[in-house]
Each structure stands twice: as C-alpha cells, then as structure tokens.
Write a structure and sequence with these properties.
Length: about 220
Amino acid sequence: MIFDFDGVLLRGDAFGLFLRRTAFAGARLPLAVAALILLASIATVPAFRPWAARWVSRIGLLGRNADALRAELERFGADLGAEPGRIIAPGLRMIRTHLAAGDRVIVVTACEHTLARAVLDAIGLAGVELVASRIRGPRLIVHNHGATKMAQLADQGVTPPWRVAYSDSLTDLPILGAAEQPVLVNANPRQVARARRLLGARLTTVTWLGGQGPEVCR
C-alpha cells in the first residue's frame, strides 16, 4: 500500500511549514521574501518546480549545521504531529486499517525524510516504511517528487504493480497509475476529470475531512 503524506495524512506542506515558521523566521525573512518573488514566476512552470523548490530549500537552510538542523527537524516534526487538527484522521485510520490487515504500508513523499519520520513516529506509525526527500546539510540532494518517487521505490526493491495507492496530487499520477486501485484524496472536479481520463474506472475518489470517515465517490 502506497500513501502520500502531505494532503493525505497531514494537512498542508510539512517542509513548507518548517521553512516558514523556522528556517525563514527572524532575520532571514527579507531574504525569503526576495527569493519567493524571484522564483514565483519560474515555479508556475511545472518542469521548473523541482528546481525552484531546491533553491527555496537551500536558501532557507543556508549556513545551518547539519546535526543541529536534523535535531530541529525532529523537534518540529514531533510538534507538528501533536498540533491540533494537523493530522487527517481518516488517512491515519486507513493506514492503521491496512496495518491491522497485515498489509505492507509505505509512505512516499516529497517531504524531507527526518521531518516526515518525526511526524510518523509522533502519531504512532514508527513501524511504517518511509521513502522521502533527503538533505545533506543545507542542500536538497534528493527531491522525491513526481517520477522520482517511482525511481526511489525501485531502489528500495518496490516495483509495480501495487494493490492500492493514495494521493491528493496529480504529480503522483505515475504512482496512481501503477496501482490496481488508485485513490485520489480531496480532489477538485477538474483533478478528478483529468485523473479519470488517464486511469479510467479503476479510479476511486475520497473526501477526508476532520474526524469523519472517508466519503467514497466512484
């Protein structure tokens, strides 16, 4: 079972929250604003988004000691996991349902590994496998986004097809397309229409809100 992280298990962008609340706080704020202005137009082009993300990350983490940064990411992740309303309860329940059934569950995310691992550990998913982006000091060395997720899974010996994949993003169409049952989470009608054109009758859509169970629309 393949699960996305941001938007499926956690509301918002975990690493983006870290940058805004911590890395770009205080004296770094003017630098962050300038960087975002310069990169905003570039980031509107899908092919350039990974490049823009690398530079935003690098600017935010510039000059930080690697060990101190790792500890800061761990603390932030633990706090994020405990933040009221941050965890998407139906997504967490679905993972626990799969685990209880004996399924292998892998969270595959563009979020940074240390941060995502800390969140998963904080919400009781310490045993769940994780494939994520990685940094070395201030540098983003693996941006686990789009087709890179497939390559990273292959490096872990995980090859398609997989039985079920859950994601809220069409950048994960390679992941969803390789699933026997692709599940699109909290998608708008335009996203659903595009995904259904590509995935056909296999596609399931779910709306996961608050503490409610999943509302399934086929």
